[in-house]
Amino acid sequence: MDTMLVAHWYAPEEVKEIADYVGDSLGLIQAVQKEQPKRLVFAGVRFMSETAKVMLPDTEIIQPDFESTCSLVTQTNIDELKKFRDDNQDSTHVMYINSSVEMKVLADIIVTSANVNAIVENEIKNGNKVIFSPDKNMGTYINKEFGYDMKVFTSVCEVHDQFNVEYLKQEMRSWTDGIKYVIAHPESPIDLLEMADFIGSTNKMLEWVKNFPNKVGTIWVATEGGLINDMKKARPELDIRPALGYNGCQCNQCPYMKRNTLEAVNAAMAGTGGTSIDYLTNDLIDAARKPIERMLNYTIE
Ligand code: SF4
To answer: Matching CATH topology for 3-69+257-279 and 72-152?
Structure first.
């Protein structure tokens, strides 16, 4: 394949429709590694394109809209992250993949929301102390769920962090019909995660909905709206609703993912637009590859 187009679940619908592969962070890395395209247009946010460049340095990788960053990157001060790492040199630094290349070189191992539980558990079973960055909500959830005491960095996803448990409970109380469920991505606030019936990565949440055993039911979903569209397509007979944000707002759209419009993607595919991820030095690429490869070497379903 000369030019491959991949899209994250949160990309605009019309972009997902024309993509060669749609998936979550882990699936996207695995798909591009398998295909080894000469040229890759990545309809995700910039840290995803950079991660692809680290794994495929000889591939020309184009970000349709270079401003499509992520709050987990922009909220993270690199000097504070270095201090977090340096103050805890006796610990394994586990870092969520939602991080820039400059952040990743400070990690011992990268995780995605699909494999974070297993990888942290494995480190702790091996007797290692663990620190976690950059997502405060995900780290806090893992600590609570499994009884760990990892030190956790302080950045949040500005989309998931706005889900509000009180508004959600209020809406659920007013619902008198049928079975009610809440499913959530682990970037959501801890009080919402505590009431969720299922917590998982985007792929796992979609699988959960596809395999939902009943023909009726209302499911509130705490994640970005793009994935909810795929859930509705998979199970149109179910009532699938977005969880609510502050002031009851159904504002679950990632402004960064949505910058990769069909127009921007088409221009990137045609070679008339987008930005080449050609600014990473070889030293940075080599250093960032190590913690990513450590993750990929784990044998996890
Ligand atoms: S949804 Fe959140 S974590 Fe994902 S790209 Fe957007 S801001 Fe970043």
So the answer is: yes
The CATH homologous superfamily for domain 160-248 is NadA-like (3.40.50.10800)
Q: Quote the CA–CA distance of 63 and 128 in Å, as a whole number.
A: 37
What topology is assigned to 3-69+257-279 in CATH?
Answer: Rossmann fold (3.40.50)
Q: What is the pLDDT along the chain (301 residues), one digit of tens a residue?
A: 689 999 999 999 999 999 999 999 888 999 999 999 999 999 999 999 999 999 999 999 999 999 999 999 999 999 999 999 999 999 999 999 999 999 999 999 999 998 999 999 999 999 999 999 999 999 999 999 999 999 999 999 999 999 999 999 998 988 877 789 999 999 999 999 999 999 999 999 999 999 999 888 899 999 999 999 999 999 999 999 999 988 777 789 999 999 999 999 999 999 999 999 999 999 999 999 999 999 998 854 3
Closest CA to 46 of 103, 119, 109: 103
* Residue-range domain boundaries for the chain: 3-69+257-279, 72-152, 160-248
First to last CA, the chain: 27
Residue 138 C-alpha to ligand 1 middle, in angstroms? Answer: 13
Residue with CA closest to ligand 1 atom 2: 157
**Fold of the domain spanning 72-152:** Rossmann fold (3.40.50)
pTM for this one?
Answer: 0.93
CA–centroid distance, 70 to ligand 1, in Å, is 5
Give 185's contacts (C-beta < 8 A, 6+ positions apart).
113, 160, 199, 200, 201, 202, 205, 222, 223, 224
